[in-house]
Amino acid sequence: MIQNPNTPEMVHILFEPLELVVNASRDPVSGLPVLASNVVMPLLSAEAIQLLSNCLVSRECQLWLSLGDAWTTSL
Known about the structure:
- The chain is mainly α.
- The relative contact order is 0.20.
- The chain is built from four helices and no strands.
- It has a domain at 50-75.
């Protein structure tokens, strides 16, 4: 159990279930994250994008970037 996680630890914790959901909703033929890439709103704030850019490890960053423009473009 993690107690009082810092910001990067919290981001890593949140990316675990996100990865499960994205992987479960991938297109069976193309393997693309169809459900996630169809999200168009709400856009993340510039601060949220900067936080993710600074906290994500390589695997998490690849997942995040695969989600589409709405996940990497700020308001």
